[in-house]
Design goal:
This protein is of the alpha+beta class. It has helices spanning 4-23, 37-49, 59-69, 93-105, 123-131, 135-163, 168-177; strands at residues 26-31, 53-56, 83-87, 110-116, 119-121. Helix 4 crosses helix 5 (123-131) and helix 6 crosses helix 7.
Length: 178
Amino acid sequence: MPNAKVLSEKQAIVAALTDKLQNAAAGVLVDYKGITVAEDTALRAKCRENDIEYTVVKNTLLRFAFNNCGLNELDDQLNGTTSLAICASDPVAPARVIAEYAKKLNGKFEIKGGFMDGKVVSMDTVNALAAIPALPVLQAQVLGTMLAPISALACVIKQIAEKQGAPAEAAAEEAAAE
């Protein structure tokens, strides 16, 4: 039987972990067996850049936290070496960063499972989330799509003006005046 001090420390860890899981938009469980310290340091730096909290957690403590949050389906994944990547702001970030890193390390680092908005998601869903580009990339794609017709129109007007022999600036001023 553990002493009262150790038990209270573990209960505090489980309570903090439960709070983090409840406030997380998404999370991914990872088997990190076989990675080197340098690889782990690079992963942690990438996680910090993307506002992801990456921690190694004891399976029993994580199991208690999952049971407190209603994520009991992930209990089967809690064997061997386990780490947890969670993000409160971006539900796509943990899956994207961890999947990218898993590809890079080729077998030494693999995703066990994941959750999103308090519900367990399948591995297919985790892989689909990992394929979504980062938010700034998506914003740039949308902006590019919105600007494409305007840019094409400007190029056509310029070509028409040059074909008729008028300088491009004069044609643009005429088009604006009309």
